[in-house]
Amino acid sequence: MNEKETPREEQVDELAHKMSQWQQANPQATLTEMEEAVEAELAKLRKQLVEAMVQEKEAAIQEEVEYPQCGKSMVKNGRRQRKLKGKEGQTLQLDRQQWRCLSCGTTLFPPG
After folding, report:
1. Would you write out the chain's pLDDT as a tens digit for each of its 112 residues?
2. How far is CA 24 from CA 9, 20, 27, in A?
3. Closest Cα partner for 110 from 94, 97, 95?
4. Is the CB of residue 98 less than 8 Å from the CB of residue 79?
5. Is the separation of the CB atoms in 33 and 67 below 8 Å?
6. In the chain, what is the straight-line distance between the N-terminal and C-terminal CA atoms, in Å?
7. Strand order of the sheet with strand 107-108?
């Protein structure tokens, strides 16, 4: 990886390389087929980027969280796998921190 290139830039370069290889393997592809191939690869990249962004956001969450309903302190209650539907319909699998309210015992995942 180039010193100035970020991991995300590397992903974009990899995508461009994949598409170039696809085009070489499919020289008679129609415009529609090209668009479908690009969209399929973009969906994979979109999923990876969203999952990474959620993990980065979660890492920035403060150590003590208040439960929105009662304002009492929450504590970490272990990490759980969550499967959510993304905007484009793909399933995002996230490893998220679950929190538990010390007062009422309610558990939740922070928004985001």
Report:
1. 456 677 778 888 888 899 999 999 999 999 999 999 998 888 888 888 888 887 777 776 666 677 778 878 888 887 888 887 877 777 888 888 888 888 888 888 765 4
2. 23, 6, 6
3. 97
4. yes
5. no
6. 30
7. 65-66, 73-85, 91-101, 107-108
CA dist 12 → 4, 73, 84 (Å): 14, 42, 24
Nearest to 59 by CA among 86, 83, 95: 95
Burial 27-52 (b: 16+ CB within 10 A, else e): eeeeeeeeeebeeebeeeebbeebbe
Residue with tokens 């995002």: 92
Give the pairing of strands 91-101 and 107-108.
antiparallel
